[in-house]
Design goal:
about 90 residues, mainly alpha, 2 domains, about 65% helix, about 0% strand, rod-shaped
Length: about 90
């Protein structure tokens, strides 16, 4: 007489440990897709115009420092500054 003392696969804890990893990933990806579809990304209006305005204010700040930079360079090098606006 042969005695078969095997259990079903769902009775082993290691099987559930192996299954739980991919199952968590699948559930997380479903939640991520739901959130991505359900909440649209906000669109920034006139981003190009706002970027140009930021560049103008940065240029104005740099230009306001130009005389001080020329005077500092003149004091350090002894060279008379020129009025050339092409170089920063």
């Amino acid at each position: 007489m042969e005695i078969n003392d095997s259990k079903s696969w769902w009775n082993f804890g290691y099987v559930w440990l192996v299954i739980s990893g991919p199952l968590v990933v699948v559930i997380a990806s479903i939640i991520t897709v739901y959130l991505a579809i359900g909440t649209p990304d906000p669109v920034i209006n006139d981003y190009y115009r706002k970027g140009m305005e930021i560049n103008k204010t940065l240029d104005a700040q740099r230009d306001s420092m130009a005389p001080a930079l020329q005077a500092r360079n003149n004091a350090a090098t002894g060279i008379k500054p020129t009025q050339d606006k092409t170089t920063p």
